[in-house]
Design a protein that fits this description.
Number of helices: 3
Strand content: under 5%
Order of helices and strands: HHH
Structural class: mainly alpha
Keywords: Membrane, Mitochondrion, Mitochondrion inner membrane, Transit peptide, Transmembrane, Transmembrane helix, Ubl conjugation
InterPro entries: Cyt_c_oxidase_su8 (IPR003205), Cyt_c_oxidase_su8_sf (IPR036548)
Membrane topology: Single-pass membrane protein
Radius of gyration: 26 Å
Protein name: Cytochrome c oxidase subunit 8
Number of strands: 0
Main location: mitochondrion
Low-confidence stretches: none
């Protein structure tokens, strides 16, 4: 470790202490309208098709991936 390393680290930490940090106030409001049953069904179906179906297909064909050809 060089002699300049502690000075370099001290300089970098000094820069981070001087940077201004902006605080953001996030407030959530209640939804304008309630989700309908069809909205929930479409959302759950799309999540199933996008995430669970491909991973299930890969897991079901795992043995064919293990074979060397």
């Amino acid at each position: 470790m060089s002699v300049l390393m502690p000075q370099l680290l001290r300089g970098l930490t000094g820069l981070t202490q001087r940077l201004p940090v902006q605080r953001v106030q996030i407030h959530s409001k209640p939804p304008w309208e309630q989700l309908r049953t069809m909205d929930v069904a479409v959302g759950l179906t799309s999540c199933f098709l996008c995430f669970l179906l491909p991973s299930g297909w890969v897991l079901s064909h795992l043995e064919s991936y293990k074979k060397r050809e």
